[in-house]
Amino acid sequence: MTTLEHSIPDTAEPTQAQPPGPLADPVFAERYRAMSARDSRFDGQFITGVHSTGIYCRPSCPAVTPKPGNVSFYLTAAAAHEAGLRACKRCLPDAVPGSPQWNVRDDLAARAMRLIADGTVEREGVPGLAHRLGYTTRHLNRVLTAELGAGPLALARAHRAQTARLLLTGTDLPITDVAFAAGFSSVRQFNETMAEVYRLTPGAIRAAARRSPSATHRAPGAVTLSLRLPARAPFDGTSVLGFLAARAIDGMEAAGAGGSAYARTLRLPHGPAAVRLALTGTADAPAVQCDAALADIADLAPLVARVRRLLDLDADAEAIDAVLAADPALAPSVAASPGLRVPGAVDAEEIVYRAMIGQQISVAAARTALTRLTDALGEPIALPVPGGDSGPGGDPGPGAVGGFTRLFPTSAAIAERGREVLRGPARRVDAIIGVAEALAEGRLVIDVGESRDDLEQRLLALPGIGPWTAGYIALRVLGSPDILLTGDLALRQGAARLGLPSEARALGEYGMRWAPWRSYAGLHLWRA
């Protein structure tokens, strides 16, 4: 296994040398071995701070291995910044997949990290972040400093710096636009932060990238750009794009042939956007090409965070596959599809309606019903589909430029007019309208800052939502890695084909051996 979350305590306090030496600490020793081996599987899972040089690196940095007494390990770049370290110019420690811990863990620190990545501090400030999490600002700052080595402002600042570097090296946006797109309140603040973190000016960072000119430009009413998002290997991108393609809603989604690409519209904090995702990179260094058209460039950071969650790019695939392959029943499926990912969400409320409308009917029937709902109640948009004049993967058709006509309907629209469009048993329609009213009025909140238990309990308290629906929503919205939907008929049929128990309770008991990766085991059962 490559994961460290079971052996590393929930703390980011520097594990510096302590008598009789730092290697006497098993956590330090494990991290030091990974760093000494320059093992790229650990990139993003922790950060190496080298105090003799004043820099921090990814574990796979090719520089000479420092002495143990000169090393500290951190869980976040912000903690390294707080210790007075700057980012390594050679290995670019933030140009790697993010930590899988923020999905594996479901505590306050993990929930805060998910919201910080989504830009909550930039939009609502630290008081807004604390309110979303249900704690005082003082308590939140105390917990994050103790757990992650930095408070919410420092964590958000580090995230802004990483977003800015991504824009400087991957686009040709003017530097002033980069500053505000990354979430900085002024160009002066932007310049000071970049100089402190990277010891380079923004212009020097862009020049050092030595990239070819990008396709970034301003279209009427939109900014279009192209970014490369790294994934943690192995990555079965074809399967996750295929999952999304099979459920694509006409007018707001389109897919390339054979799971080669996927495109859709989405609603972001400052306006609508369209995005096209295609697989790129190599087996050892997989990535996703992300072409986007944004109504407001300030939405770039939440867009990237949501795309990464949608495709589960940060999952520790090596650790997951190692656990699942230890079961002879799953081993052939793991070998055939290494790096299987749990599809996430770019819109939490959309997943609620997909789950409620799709329960107990086929995927094709659900797609038809959702297309009808979106066509009738979805908000019209006028954004170009990025990436050229053809549909995703080069396929012409509904996803071609001008073909996207709608955003998914808001809860307010469904609450007001849903009965005119929804079909099926009256009890199910009543349940959907009831949830829409609760969401529209703010009595029900669903986002990545929720804990799994709290989210499921609130959902189960609503009429028409059972364990399968609540579990499916938690799996897609939160990226929870340890949910086995034993109430799903197709999943149980897949289990039976593999010689596993097909009765829900017995399968649940058997599946304990797959913890904490039962969500991924469920994907293998669905494939069977």
Q: Care to describe what's here?
A:
The protein has helices at 26-36, 77-82, 101-104, 108-117, 120-133, 137-148, 152-170, 175-181, 187-198, 202-209, 237-246, 300-310, 317-325, 331-336, 348-358, 363-377, 411-421, 426-441, 452-460, 467-478, 489-497, 504-510, 518-527; strands at 47-50, 55-57, 71-74, 86-87, 217-219, 222-230, 253-255, 261-268, 271-281, 286-294. With 528 residues, the chain is an alpha+beta fold. Among the domains are: 22-101, DNA Methylphosphotriester Repair Domain, CATH 3.40.10.10; 106-209, Arc Repressor Mutant, subunit A, CATH 1.10.10.60; 489-527, no CATH class. The protein has a six-stranded antiparallel beta sheet. β1 (47-50) and β2 (55-57) form a beta hairpin.
Summarize the structure.
With 528 residues, this protein is α+β, with helices and mostly antiparallel strands. The chain contains 23 helices and 10 strands.
Helix fraction bin:
40-55%
Name the CATH homologous superfamily of the domain at 106-209.
Homeodomain-like
CATH class of the domain at 106-209: Mainly Alpha
How far do the termini sit from each other?
25 Å
Shape descriptor: globular
Task: Describe how the helices and strands are arranged.
Layout: H1 26-36, E1 47-50, E2 55-57, E3 71-74, H2 77-82, E4 86-87, H3 101-104, H4 108-117, H5 120-133, H6 137-148, H7 152-170, H8 175-181, H9 187-198, H10 202-209, E5 217-219, E6 222-230, H11 237-246, E7 253-255, E8 261-268, E9 271-281, E10 286-294, H12 300-310, H13 317-325, H14 331-336, H15 348-358, H16 363-377, H17 411-421, H18 426-441, H19 452-460, H20 467-478, H21 489-497, H22 504-510, H23 518-527
